[in-house]
Amino acid sequence: MITRYIGYTQHDLPPSVHRGLPSRHVTLIVSLADPIRITGMPKPGEAPATMAAPVGGMHLSPALIAQDAFQSGVHVELDPLGVPALLGVSPAELSGYVVDLADLGVPRLARLPERLAAATSWAGRFAILDDVFAAAAGHNEPAPEVARAWRRLVDAAGRLRVGTLAEEVGWSRRHLTERFRRQLGLSPKQAARVLRFERAGGLLRQGGADLAELAVACGYYDQAHLGNEWRALAGCSPGTWIAEELPFLQDQPAAPAPDSAA
User: Fold this and answer.
1) Transmembrane segments in this chain: where (predicted)?
2) pLDDT tens for each residue of 205-254
3) Where exactly does CATH 2.60.120 map onto the chain?
4) Which of 21, 66, 97, 125 is most buried, taking the most CB atoms under 10 A from its CB?
5) Predicted confidence band at 14 (pLDDT cuts at 50, 70, 90)?
6) Max CA pair span of the chain
7) How far apart, in whole angstroms, are the C-alpha atoms of residue 95 and residue 169?
8) How far is the C-alpha of 63 from the C-alpha of 56, rounded, in Å?
9) Beta-carbon contacts of residue 159 (< 8 Å; ≥ 6 apart)
10) pLDDT in the model for residue 150
11) CB-based contacts of 239: which residues, under 8 Å, 6+ apart?
């Protein structure tokens, strides 16, 4: 249940704030440079924090991260269905929060930043991640109906009505909503919002997108609906995000999920 690993190193970045956007993943970032300074948490009222290895649950607003001139680390994207086995907590416990990996209370995970820092290549670091996640004990997925509903939403990029989803899994809409939220931390409707938003972000990264056409392709009523959702989930308009982020995006070494964890 690991989507991918991304290794990154960036030099001479201008001082700014990076928006950690909502996505379908639970994310782990292990810094190989200075600790990561999170200046704004996705959950209102949570204090800023500095962490060597932050774990971010699924959320509905951005995490604001201070961008240092030099950055290096490993970014891991986890499917929420695999989080109980891989991290020892439920995705619902992490939803809306950013916590330090060491605070999860799993020794093999607490030692991970030190092991990654000692490695001398990206291939070596990815092999360490394979080793750590392969040692995860057992599988404790949510209820099969919840897992099926989540996978259907992901496959449809959020363009699926909750009523239709409930009919497919054989539950009432209310029961599906309650069980889905209890086990994944978001309701099906909220998860669909995140998935549509994530698809829109992916298309924006490709460049040259007409916002009106993009809005329709991603399941929004119109461009105004797209803009409202971006301001709610990203804290800014699509145009502002493009101006802030796209000039600094670059390809980084990446590794697919290990076969044993897929």
Assistant:
1) none
2) 887 678 999 999 999 999 999 999 999 999 999 989 888 876 654 444 45
3) 2-140
4) 125
5) confident
6) 54
7) 23
8) 9
9) 192, 196, 218, 219
10) 97
11) none
- Outline which parts of the chain fall under CATH 1.10.10.60: 144-245
pLDDT at 60 over 80: yes
One-letter amino acid of 216: V
Q: Which pair of tokens denotes residue 29?
A: 């970032």
Fold of 144-245: Arc Repressor Mutant, subunit A (1.10.10)
94 is written with which tokens? 């992490």
Q: Please list the alpha-helical segments (H only) found in the chain.
A: 83-87, 91-94, 107-110, 112-118, 122-134, 144-155, 162-169, 173-184, 188-206, 211-217, 223-234, 238-245
Phi first, then psi: give them for residue 112, nearest 5 degrees: -60, -45
Two tokens, residue 73: 């680390």
Q: How far apart are CA 76 and CA 186, in angstroms?
A: 21
Pair 194, 23: CB distance under 8 Å = yes
The per-residue pLDDT for 195 is: 98
pLDDT digits (tens, 9 = 90+) for 166-191: 999 999 999 999 999 999 999 999 99
Quote the CA–CA distance of 16 and 250 in Å, as a whole number: 17
